[in-house]
Amino acid sequence: MRRLMLLRHAKTENDAPSGKDRDRRLDDRGRLDAAEIGGWIARHPPHPDAVLVSPAVRSHQTWDIVWDAIKSTAAAPNLEFVPELYGADPSALLQAIRSVASDDPRRLLLVGHNPGMHELAFGLTGGGNAKARAALADNLPTSGLAVIDFDIDDWRDVSFRGGRLELFVSPKLLKAASGG
C-alpha cells in the first residue's frame, strides 16, 4: 500500500516584486490556510515519509508552514526540491512520483501547482470516496489536499485511474464542516 498526498500551494500575491511568477509569495490568507491544512495533517496521521516541493517561493513557503504545524507530531520526512514540479503537467508529475521508488517511502507528499496537480489528482483516482471525488471534480483549490491510496508495493506502479481518493480537504471545506 502506498499513499500519495497532493497539496496545492497556498494563496499568493498577484504579482511578485521581481515580476517573476516563481517569486510570488503567500499572502495573509495563504499563510493562514497553509497553517490550517498543516494543523489538519498533524491531527490525521500517518504523516508523509517523503516530500517533493516545487522550486517556486510559494511552494517553499507553503511547505515551511505545513511542516511547522506537523513537526511536533511527525518524524522529519526526506525533503527534496524538484525543479520539474514547477508548471508540470500530469505526466511529468507522475514521473516525479515514480522517481522516489529507490527511496521507497510509504507516504509521499507533493507540493505544487495547478492545473497539473488538479489534473493529476483527478486522473489518478479510479474510485474512492464519492463525496470527495465530487468536491475535487471542479478544482484543487489553493491549500487543497487530495489523499490517494494505491494498492501497490512500488511507486513505479502508480498509474492513471489506479488509485482510490480517500479524502479531499481544503480550508473552505474545513470551515464549512465546523460551521464557520
The parts where pLDDT drops under 50 for at least 5 residues are none
The CATH homologous superfamily is named Phosphoglycerate mutase-like
Radius of gyration: 15 Å
Number of strands: 7
> How does the overall form come out from the CA principal axes?
globular
Give the fraction of residues assigned to helices: 25-40%
Strands of the biggest beta sheet: in what spatial order? 3-2-4-1-6-7-5
- The CATH architecture would be 3-Layer(aba) Sandwich
Q: Quick one: CATH class?
A: Alpha Beta
Description:
- There is one protein chain.
- This protein has 180 residues and is an alpha/beta fold.
- The protein has a single domain (2-177), classed as Phosphoglycerate mutase-like (Rossmann fold), CATH 3.40.50.
- The chain has helices spanning 28-43, 57-70, 90-98, 116-124, 130-138, 171-177, and strands spanning 2-8, 50-53, 78-81, 107-112, 125-128, 145-150, 163-169.
- It has a seven-stranded mixed β-sheet.
- Helix 1 crosses helix 2 and helix 3 packs across helix 4.
- The protein is globular, with a radius of gyration of 15 Å.
- It starts with a strand and ends with a helix.
- The model has no long low-confidence stretch (mean pLDDT 94).
Question: Would you summarize the structure shown here?
Answer:
With 180 residues, the chain is α/β, with parallel strands linked by helices.
Record keyword descriptors for this entry.
180 residues, seven-stranded mixed sheet, 36% helix
List the helices and strands and how they pair.
Elements: E1 2-8, H1 28-43, E2 50-53, H2 57-70, E3 78-81, H3 90-98, E4 107-112, H4 116-124, E5 125-128, H5 130-138, E6 145-150, E7 163-169, H6 171-177
Parallel strand pairs: 1-4, 2-3, 2-4, 5-7
Antiparallel strand pairs: 1-6, 6-7
